[in-house]
């Protein structure tokens, strides 16, 4: 092997070793009246659902509750309930009519939160029970939850976190010692271009829309959006979101990257190509140009979001967040809720960190 070939091979091996792994979001599973899922960092969440046979809306019962557990050395076990905190300062929790916990109701996203040993005690009752009820001090019902499937959901967490057969399992108990998972959240290096305000003209956007996959989907009021992505040398880039149809609560957009080369001899203006993603947005489907829904752009962090609701209540669907790395969009968070049964708290199934290239170099020095 020549010296040149050896050097090239060594660099290729190093690049492969340091490359960010491909995004592989987990799945959301349903066990009767509970949904459950885990992310790539070992954090698992189980969420209660409206019982299918009753169809009782959570607007009346003020649910659901969620159970969160991590698998790392910083282990966390929490039970949370999103209930109205107005005029209620304490709660009592019953499982099958037996009092299993009591505590304060506070203001915030989770007015009721049970942690640590108290959470473990309550979960042992949940695993064996069929119905959970939260009661106000005056005896009024705050929330009522079906526990059908909760044991299977917690067993699933035991399996996903490698706890099955160990002393730390909630359901699949055993005598083996538990070894904390060594999951690593990937860090994406971004290489943003210098700030610049140049962007395509209206005529460029109209021409792009006419040539896009969205041409026959543009009816009623349409709103295309353009965001500068900066410059590098004499090259300028911009993100273009072409309106691509709308329903009652979902608004689709086709993302394009526009590029302009400032050159005295240039004979062409902006050129456009479909935006590249390391993981195809779920709304568009595989094998097609990407499509976003209810898209949002954060200019400061250069992050792009897609939030597809399964129905207007927003209690089901899929969502993704991406960061622009200077060339393509990279998935940094994904969440989902597969069942349209009152669970407004979706389950995170993928996480990644990101930082600028120069920050990554400084951290490694």
| Unreliable parts | 1-18
What is the helical fraction, as a range of percent?
Answer: 10-25%
How many angstroms separate the termini?
Answer: 32 Å
Shape field = elongated
Q: N-to-C SSE series?
A: HEEEHEEEEEHEEHEHEEEEEEEEEEEH
- Counted by DSSP, the helix tally is 6
Q: Order of strands across the biggest sheet? A: 1-2-3-4-5-8
List the helices and strands and how they pair.
Layout: H1 3-18, E1 28-31, E2 34-38, E3 44-48, H2 58-61, E4 65-69, E5 77-81, E6 90-95, E7 98-104, E8 112-115, H3 116-128, E9 131-135, E10 141-146, H4 150-160, E11 187-190, H5 202-211, E12 225-232, E13 235-246, E14 251-261, E15 271-274, E16 292-293, E17 296-298, E18 303-309, E19 317-324, E20 329-337, E21 347-351, E22 353-356, H6 357-364
Parallel strand pairs: 11-22
Antiparallel strand pairs: 1-2, 2-3, 3-4, 4-5, 5-8, 6-7, 6-9, 9-10, 12-13, 13-14, 14-15, 14-16, 17-18, 18-19, 19-20, 20-21
